[in-house]
Design brief:
The protein is mainly alpha-helical. It contains 47 helices and ten strands. The chain is globular.
Length: 945
């Protein structure tokens, strides 16, 4: 390290670990180092040394610290590292600052306080910066970091190994089981180095003394410093105290103490330093200690009521005494122990915080800054809100809590609860506070708490508008808790009350249609939605219009009316831009549109629609992002791009989800593993699907995927009767709304399995049902091909099968194509046309090889051998699992773009996929090629070319 200071004496081992992290990041290999130790042990000095070393290495350095007062403000700590409060010239940071403050986000899904969209934006920014050069991210006092920052660091740890980024944090030891401890274990599990910064030895203490006083310590001084227990800050404070008391002398080349009266503790040593400060300087320090670890002079002026010019001399005095230091435009305490000592000496701290909060409120300070102080000042005399400033504070909370909820929902909940506790029930603001609290609870992810709070408040609300608003929030909470039955009842109660305005009536009706859909009551949902959408379009009520059209689109899709589903989605999307429409509704429309397009074989348009859903979902933080990735994974699966499907699936299961989508994703991953003959992984994924089962009413919508995987597993175990029974039950009953046309793609599997078991009755049943579905309005070209496929297979008629050949040759459904060729080969072999059968089998195996579907290859060969076609081992070809040939087309493209120096976000934008999907592909590429970093990958691509 290049930084030489007495604070680093005895820290050579720690410095080597930091130097290694910086060196690795400079060469393209990410590394995390976690410094842990007691206060004053030297963690901050080590961080500063690492920052200096990183700057000398040409790295971009992001250095900041968490603050105790900002623990309930999402992304406050990481925001300081990024310089969000000061770097307004940078448009990316300016936009990110607005996003963190909740600007322009009235439609973000409630319940995700550690907002996914913000996490994604920060990760994308770090990724972009890393693509232009190595980055060092250093965060001090991690023990006080907010939850958003902890979530961000957890996500960063997942991709850190492939980025040229050094993550170095410092904290006090974590308590077992808390959020910081969980992050610690997560990072260590991914290769982070834990460095425990312990007490210094006697030699290192002597080095500190020599550095401070120019000579080694004599015997008396060494005995006094022994009480410092190897804490460098304590050593420094003891020496400073002796110097101030003129109790140090140099004799015979050593420094000696003339007194045995030294501070008994680090805290007392720091407080002793304050004895030398003027009364004006002490007043500045005490007021500053209320503001937290750092503050600005204008902020200090606001709180003290003194002009900034009158504070300059006092501020400069305490800076000279080493109590404060400058950090950009802010002043920060040299060590938080100084602030803590001052803070704890303040009498009536709660009242002081209340006064600070009111002063900041009058100055128009950020709402979260005001709220922290008002909350810490609550309950000064046991009377809650009245004691913290009376009606003025109640008015401020009522006027600003909505904005605070967008910025810091948990903080908003606590402040509203405290304010309501001190506000009389007949206060004209009480009703508004009740509504705001219900909303804040919902946004904080505490939906179960909304019901008791709201139901207690409802009897006290006489204003119909307020009652309607609170009922609306309550209904949303019911849905978030997986109880759409309660939401339906509340919607009906509101509609029957006779107090709703026409726009409110339409909003509730549209909401009712979405709840009924969740129950699988598609016809009732469709009837209500069709009526609402006509009235909503007529009156320009875009929220109700979009929700009703979303219901129409979903129901039409599940009925197999794909063109009508697309028309409904397009109508909503044409009218939505620029309107106050929730982003998650728009994401849902794009997903339904994409799925319907894929069913019509309009593959490119389908992918574009899901890409639009992903882009919108990532910027709004919607919970439907998991469904976006699940949809794309499903497309990739049916198209035979199984490695790409697994990349999308892996991203999907790592995202927050309030539906049953993870169950579907695990089922899809189990299918791929099963078709590839990896039944150990298939069993693991099936177990994960079972563990992901929820009581959500959306579960039936995704049930067919894990059941398909389970049927495949039964068949692989030779339990074909059980597999057929399970498949037949699903065919007859359906899975919630997934019926008829939606299950037609399993018809060929059902006929094939029934024929294998000699169950001709089941074959006839399936053929009759398939032909019943074959009507002119809804049947797609794919459906007609499947029906011809089933007929030809059942009749063992090559000519009937041939009528579907044109479709299967062009279909994007690659697995279906391979199974079709296999079925044709089996029928031809049964008719004695062995040469033709061998040709068709070769085409089937070619398809299976593309997907590495080894189990499919084995089954096809065994089946055709039983039908009279001798097995040829030379026909069996496998795609390698490692090396350049193992890369998919997508992975080859991404590798080339990495070699061009593009970041993951830039690659994602070019390929119309998500940044996380690119990250997943990069990890897969590195694994297949045996590489460890993007730098190595870029070099390997160049060499390969």
């Amino acid at each position: 390290m290049s930084v030489a200071t007495t604070a680093l004496a005895g820290r050579s081992q720690e410095m080597r670990e930091l130097d290694t992290a910086v060196t690795r990041a400079s060469s393209g290999l990410g590394q995390a180092v976690l410094l842990e130790g007691e206060p004053g042990i030297g963690k901050t000095a080590l961080l500063q040394a690492a920052a200096a070393d990183a700057r000398e290495s040409g790295m971009r350095v992001l250095h900041g610290a968490a603050e105790q007062l900002e623990q309930r403000v999402p992304f406050a700590a990481i925001g300081r590292c990024l310089g969000i409060d000061t770097a307004w010239a940078d448009p990316q940071l300016r936009a990110l600052a607005g996003q963190i403050r909740g600007e322009g986000r009235p439609d973000v899904i409630p319940g995700l306080e550690a907002d996914f969209a913000t996490v994604e934006a920060i990760l994308a920014l770090l990724d972009d910066w890393s693509s232009t050069g190595p980055v060092a991210l250093l965060l001090d006092d991690l023990q006080w970091a907010d939850n958003g920052t902890l979530v961000l660091l957890h996500q960063l740890g997942k991709s850190l190994h492939s980025l040229p980024l050094a993550l170095i944090t410092a904290s006090r030891p974590a308590a077992a089981g808390d959020e910081l401890d969980q992050l610690r274990h997560s990072l260590i599990g991914r290769g982070a180095v834990l460095v425990e910064v312990g007490p210094l030895g006697e030699h290192a203490v002597s080095q500190i003394v020599r550095g401070l006083l120019g000579a080694p310590a004599g015997p008396t001084l060494r005995r006094l410093l022994h009480d410092a227990t190897g804490n460098p800050l304590f050593v420094t404070e003891i020496v400073g105290a002796l110097e101030r008391e003129r109790a140090i002398r140099i004799a015979q080349g050593t420094v000696e103490a003339d007194t045995a009266d030294v501070p008994a503790s680090l805290a007392s040593a720091i407080v002793g330093r304050l004895d030398w400060v003027s009364p004006e300087g002490l007043e500045v320090l005490r007021t500053a200690s209320l503001l937290g670890s750092g503050f600005t002079v204008p902020e200090l002026s606001t709180v003290t009521g003194k002009p900034a010019a009158d504070l300059v001399d006092s501020v400069m005095e305490v800076v000279r005494y080493g109590l404060l230091r400058e950090q950009g435009e802010r002043l920060v305490f040299r060590h938080d122990l100084i602030r803590q000592a001052l803070y704890e000496a303040i009498p009536a701290r709660a009242a002081s915080h209340s006064a600070v909060g009111r002063a900041l409120a009058r100055s128009g300070a950020p709402v979260e800054r005001v709220a922290e102080h008002l909350l810490m000042g609550a309950g000064t005399d046991g009377a809650g809100g009245a004691a913290t400033g009376g009606d003025a504070v109640v008015d401020w909370v009522a006027d600003h809590a909505a904005a605070l909820t967008l910025r810091a929902p948990s903080l908003s909940v606590e402040l509203l609860q405290q304010t309501l506790n001190g506000t009389a029930a007949d206060n004209e603001r009480a009703g508004r506070l009740d509504i705001l609290l219900a909303s804040a609870l919902l946004w904080s992810g505490r939906a179960p708490e909304v019901q008791p709070q709201a139901e207690e408040a409802l009897p006290h609300l006489s204003d119909p508008g307020q009652r309607s608003e609170l009922l609306w929030i309550l209904a949303q909470a019911d849905v978030a808790c997986g109880r759409p039955d309660l939401a339906v009842q509340r919607a009906r109660d509101a509609l029957d009350s006779g107090t709703l305005s026409p726009p409110e009536t339409r909003r509730y009706q549209a909401f009712l249609s979405t709840c009924l859909f969740r129950f699988g009551q598609l016809d009732r949902a469709l009837n209500i939605a069709e009526k609402v959408r006509v009235d909503a379009v007529l009156h320009g009520e875009y929220h109700a219009m979009v929700d009703s059209l979303l219901t129409v689109a979903i129901v039409r899709m599940f009925h197999g009316n794909y063109r009508e589903a697309i028309e409904a989605a397009d109508q909503a999307l044409r009218n939505a831009p620029g309107q106050a429409v929730p982003a998650h509704s728009l994401v849902g429309l794009y997903i339904i549109r994409g799925r319907s397009l894929f069913e019509l074989d309009r593959t490119a348009e389908a992918h574009q629609s899901i890409a639009a859903a992903l882009q919108l979902g990532e910027t709004s933080g919607g919970m439907l992002l998991t469904l976006c990735h699940a949809s794309r994974a499903s497309f990739m699966f049916h198209a035979g791009r199984w490695d790409d499907a697994l990349a999308e699936a892996q991203v999907g299961i790592e995202l927050p989800d309030h539906l049953s989508t993870p169950r579907a994703i695990h089922g899809l991953m189990a299918l791929i593993a099963g078709f590839r003959g990896d039944f150990a992984t298939a069993d693991e994924r099936l177990a994960a699907a079972d563990a992901a089962t929820s009581s959500s009413t959306t579960t039936p919508y995704v049930e067919y995927l894990p059941r398909w995987a389970r049927e495949l597993r039964l068949e692989s175990q030779g339990r074909k009767e059980e597999a057929l029974a399970d498949l037949l039950e699903g065919w007859r009953r359906g899975f919630g709304p997934v019926q008829g046309v939606g299950l037609l793609f399993r018809a060929a599997d059902l006929v094939r399995l029934a024929l294998d078991l000699g169950d001709t009755g089941t074959v006839r049943e399936v053929i009759e049902e398939a032909e019943r579905i074959d009507d002119t309005e809804r049947t797609t070209r794919r459906a007609r091909a499947i029906i011809a496929h089933c007929r030809g297979l059942a009749d063992r008629d090559p000519e009937t099968l041939a009528t579907a050949a044109d479709y299967y040759r062009e279909t994007p459904w690659l697995l279906s194509r391979g199974q079709y060729y296999e079925d044709v080969a089996a029928v031809l072999a049964g008719a004695g046309r062995l040469d033709e059968a061998r040709t068709e089998l070769g085409q089937a195996i070619d398809v299976y090889v593309q997907m590495r579907a080894d189990w499919c290859i084995s089954c096809a060969e065994e089946r055709l051998e039983a039908a009279g076609l001798p097995r040829r081992r030379t026909d069996r070809r496998r795609r390698p699992a490692s090396g350049w040939e193992a890369l998919t087309d997508t992975e080859h493209k991404i590798a080339a773009l990495v070699a061009e120096g593009l970041s993951n976000p830039a690659i994602a934008a070019r390929m119309f996929i998500s940044r996380r999907t690119v990250q997943s592909h990069v990890s897969s590429i590195l694994g297949k090629l045996g590489l460890t970093s993007r730098v190595e990958l870029a070099t390997a691509v160049t060499r390969q070319r």
